[in-house]
Amino acid sequence: MASRSLFVNLRRASNTCISRSFCSGALIESVDDQEIDDLKSRILRVRLPKRSVTNVLERWVHQGNHITISELRQISKELRMSQRHKHALEIVIATMTLHNYIRRHAHRDTDFVQGERDAVGGSSDEIEVEDEVEEEHHVLTDSAKPCKFLCSQPSKEYRAHNFEGVTMKLFEVNGNTFSLALFIEVTNSKELLESMQAATLEPEVAFLNASLIPDVFPLLAAAHKTLVSKSRDSLTTRTLHSELVYNYSGSKHITESLKRCGISESSTYVLAARFNATSDEIEQKTVEKLVNGKEINLEELGGRADQAQIQKHYKITSQELGISSLADAITCRIAARDAL
Predict the structure, then answer these.
(1) Threshold 0.85, pTM exceeds
(2) Are 185 and 296 in contact (CB under 8 A)?
(3) CA-to-CA distance for 200 and 219, rounded, in angstroms?
(4) Hey, which of 42, 65, 237, 280 has its CA 20 to 30 A from 228?
(5) pLDDT tens for residues 141-152?
(6) Nearest Cα to 271, choosing from 193, 145, 184?
(7) Within a 10 A sphere around the Cβ of 242, how many other Cβ atoms?
(8) How does pLDDT run across 26-37, given as a tens digit for each residue?
(9) Cβ(281)–Cβ(260) below 8 Å
(10) Phi, psi for 228 (deg, rounded to 5)
């Protein structure tokens, strides 16, 4: 009887020690968590997918702290490795939003320069030279300047060339030409669609639903992604020009992307895009002759964009538009699609 009582007491004492050990361990862990209070630690502590890490970023900034590109990239990488894809996407979108804000409101930011230098292995002096070259050549306007986050290498110059008597504009994207022409009152969309589906359209052109394009900038971003995919022999669709439509959609569903962002049989407002058009094609208006409609200036894109349809397709909230623009929101989705 005495031995049984001793066994029970020892068991209780053992459980008490284990309990105290766990409690002290938890206390030490909580103290360590309090000591490590950087942005990365705060975000990694958000475990539930339903919780948003955007709120953590906002609180971090409101407390007077700074955020750097290299830091956000590292956090996004760790989140993806932990299979926390929703939170990783939020970080990518936040990164793009920061970049677009700086692109519109400042000429230069040291943290972004440092982030780009770390990403491409170049020096800050080389990046400074690129910035000076862009300023000398007057590379587009702020609303059409390419986003460097989309580039796996330092971005090339995007120039807009105007030809006398020609409304079509020609851009240079990574050493390739990219021609754009905008049309209203189009009457032969059905024939154009059938020719594209039968692969008999000559020359090959991408026809997009212009009502979903508020600015040239996101289209240039999609063009850059298309050319990068081509250089890697990794086109998702059959042709270079259908890849452009697919990339502009910001979605991974190919058929749905081509239907929504491409033209339909009843389309009357169309944007025509062609890579590497020859000088003869431009002078003879070969692309323009394919379309039965009235050609207008690209500057009218913003005023004719269907904001309600754009917000619905890209799932853009009014809160996001309060701190950004339609063009920037679309660009974020184009860039973030392949991040996961």
Answers:
(1) no
(2) no
(3) 25
(4) 280
(5) 333 333 333 333
(6) 184
(7) 20
(8) 444 444 445 578
(9) no
(10) -65, -45
User: Which single residue is written with the structure tokens 């920061």?
Assistant: 98
The tokens of 208 are what? 């997009």
Helices (H), the chain: 2-35, 39-44, 54-62, 69-81, 85-105, 110-120, 124-137, 189-197, 216-231, 240-249, 254-261, 279-283, 286-290, 301-304, 307-314, 318-321, 326-336
Measured distance CA(56)–CA(276) in Å, rounded: 45
Q: In the predicted model, is pLDDT for residue 268 greater than 70?
A: yes
Contact 168, 180 (CB under 8 A): yes
Distance, C-alpha 166 to centroid of its chain: 31
Residue 9, judged by CB atoms within 10 A of its CB (0-12, 13-18, 19+), counts as exposed
Side-chain half-sphere of 317: how many Cα atoms within 13 Å? Answer: 3
Q: Is the pLDDT of residue 17 over 50?
A: no
Q: Which of 54, 65, 55, 116 is nearest to 88 (CA)?
A: 54
Contacts of 277 (CB under 8 A, 6+ apart): 170, 177, 179, 203, 286, 287
The structure tokens listed for 9 are 């007491």
